[in-house]
Design a protein that fits this description.
With 260 residues, this protein is an alpha/beta fold. Helix content is 39%, strand content 18%. It has a single domain, classed as TIM Barrel. It is globular and about 50 Å long.
Amino acid sequence: MIVLKAVVVALFATAATGVCAAECPRKDALGTSRVMTVDPQAFPRVGLKSFPQTLPLADKEVVLTFDDGPFPPTTTKVLSALASECVQATFFLVGRNAEANPGMVKKIATAGHSIGHHTWSHPWLDKMGQTQAMEEIDRGITADEKALHGKATSVPSTPFFRFPGFASTPALLSSLQSRGIAVLGADLWASDWDPMPPEQQLRLLTERLDDEGKGIILLHDTKAQTAKMLPAFLQYLKRNGYKVVHLVAPRPVKSSSNDR
């Protein structure tokens, strides 16, 4: 039993290492409490809405994620709200939006947020063949990487992917896992794909969060109602003792000069 416990502790230390976030200049801000390094080999897929396991978050820890951008009119407001509270999030970009707005992609990254991938054009991938679906995934990654780094490659610098509509297949999940790409689902969401006033969305999201107590939260930076709701939600997190965890990928292992 002691040996098993040691193995589990070692796995978590490798898969999701938490370190202190950079200090926020505003002492009264919510801030990012810690940074979690997520190893796709140990956590190939997470999010209780789709999978049996999620990330090892403590009670009252949340991960903020935003899908479908960038869309400058609303993404800019989301970035401003996050910056005002010194909070980092993960943005899952749609490739055609990244291609159309490379400056906004760079702005997201420069602000310290992580950039994940969300296909080229946001189709339901379980409705198409394996080859076509992988082409859609790779085209999205390539567009995101070109916008971010100026280099067209289907090898993601941050190997995080989210399926549109969580519509995965076993074959696609296996393919992404074999490439070392983690699939991030969600533990709760704001249902912001349904039109509603920001106040109603805030109430819905906070009720769900209080029921769950922690988790990966799905939002959309393309939605005006979400951009309007976000400042109040961040204040709610701060008032109620929630902590924000920022997800990053493991750093690439550099080869030594003796490696061949």
